[in-house]
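Justification of computing resources. Each target in the renewal requires a structure prediction run like the one illustrated here; the chain below, 67 residues long, is used simply to show the kind of job we budget for.
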Amino acid sequence: MSALTLTLHGANRCLERGVSLEALEGAKIATPLLNHKSLKFKYKRTWIIARMAGGSPRIISAWKEVR
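Resulting structure tokens:
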């Protein structure tokens, strides 16, 4: 499997919003569902927007679910 990558925007959002790296493993699990279109999904109370880019899953943005 290819490495998980983040866009600069996605990396900044993860840092600003305190998203745990463990939650971003959801993108690796969702890899078979990803294509060139963005996909929004929830994994471990974290919303993730990701797509497939250059053969690897790429996180575009992420944020924690607010209760």
